[in-house]
Design a protein that fits this description.
The protein has 325 residues and is an alpha/beta fold. The strands form four sheets. A five-stranded mixed beta sheet has the order 1-7-6-4-5, with helices on both faces. A four-stranded mixed beta sheet has the order 8-13-12-11, with helices on both faces. Helix 4 links the parallel strand 4 and strand 5. The two termini are 18 Å apart. Bound molecules: oxa(dethia)-CoA.
Length: 325
């Protein structure tokens, strides 16, 4: 089995900023409520001309540059998204087209906020076994396209963006372990019911606002800390490590209170936990992807560091990954 590591990272955030003050004019909310309950101050919104693949392509180009590779070098493209350009073809194929990555095998992964970790775990298998050499994995979301802008309980939480990583063989370090999990008994907690085969689009589904994300925030919140703790613990155990060995944790950015509770529970100090929720909100699969990119580019992750990626989301699904940088 080959060792697999991250050869390059990139990100893309749309230009338009939506602040909490802007939201105060749209729904019955306050900057104080959003900041104290979630830690979010602002988020980015893609333009009407930008689809998820456009965000992904921009992030991918930066990651390829960072890895010193060309699109033609890619054997595999996996896009983790719950906001695909279309039901089909896969967003990965649109990204292939946009990049000109002619020889890549392309598919999407639907694992919500844990999607980037799922995509890394999947690409690692292909590379480790020698099936493919270079893989592009992207967490990309246009959450604004599925946000109910009349629902103050959810519209203040989400934002648009993309983060990418190029994976390939490394001589030492790399991905030490991954831990994935799912609990299909909790499918009702977080979902977008309309537009699939269960409730195909009709005037009725539109009138009932079924094409927007629905979340029982409180219930998800209660499960989040334990799920993320256990996923991280299991991934660390498989790598022969413990929380004390972690140099930088990249948690999913759903709520600052969830991240703080997790950090406190496992004894991670503030400087070992990367946060970008204040600037971007919850970008589902793009949250861990952009946070990893920023932590690397900001010099917060250095050669030899132990990095923990830890995410959970709709499904419920969760995933943790340990990378020796
Ligand atoms: O990324 C995937 C996974 N998702 C998550 O992890 C999200 C997890 N959940 C959360 O982060 C939190 O549950 C939320 C931030 C979504 C909500 O925070 P909360 O502390 O759980 O609030 P709540 O839903 O229990 O609502 C408390 C109150 C309610 O009012 P009443 O019934 O107590 O009078 C809500 O109506 O806050 C009200 N509220 C708001 N008030 C002002 C809900 N949204 C807003 C708002 N502005 N935007």
């Amino acid at each position: 089995m080959k060792k697999v590591g991250v050869l390059g990272v990139g990100k893309y955030l749309p230009e338009k900023v939506l602040t909490n003050a802007d939201l105060e004019k749209m729904v019955d909310t306050t900057d104080e409520w959003i900041t104290s309950r979630t830690g979010i101050k602002e988020r980015r919104l893609a333009s009407s001309l930008e689809a998820t693949s456009d965000l992904a392509i921009n992030a991918a180009k930066e990651a390829l540059d960072d890895a010193g590779m060309k699109p033609e070098d890619l054997d595999l493209i996996i896009i983790a998204t719950i906001t695909p350009d279309m039901q089909f073809p896969s967003t990965a194929c649109f990204v292939q087209q946009g990049l000109g990555a002619s020889k890549a095998v392309c598919f999407d992964i639907s694992a919500a906020c844990a999607g980037f970790v799922y995509a890394i775990a999947c690409a690692q298998q292909f590379i480790a076994r020698g099936a493919y050499k270079n893989a592009l994995v992207v967490g990309a979301e246009k959450m604004s396209s599925i946000t109910d802008w009349q629902d103050r309980g959810t519209c203040v939480l989400f934002g648009d963006g993309a983060g990418a990583a190029v994976l390939g063989e490394v001589k030492s370090g790399g991905i030490l372990s991954t831990c994935l999990g799912s609990n299909g008994l909790k499918t009702d907690l977080l979902k977008l019911p309309g537009g699939g085969s269960r409730y195909p689009a009709t005037h009725k589904t539109i009138d009932e606002r079924l094409h927007y994300l629905q979340m029982e925030g409180n219930e998800v919140f209660k499960l989040a800390v334990n799920i993320m703790t256990e996923a991280a613990r299991e991934a660390l155990k498989s790598a022969g490590l413990d929380f004390i060995d972690v140099d930088m944790a990249i948690p999913h950015q759903a709520n600052k209170r969830i991240i703080s509770a997790l950090a406190k529970k496992v004894g991670l100090s503030d400087e070992k936990v990367y946060l970008n929720i204040e600037r971007y909100g919850n970008m589902s699969s793009a949250s861990t992807a952009t946070a990893l990119c920023e932590a690397v580019k900001d010099g917060k992750i250095k050669k030899g560091d132990i990095v923990l990626l830890d995410a959970f989301g709709a499904g419920l699904v969760w995933g943790a990954c340990i990378i020796k940088w």
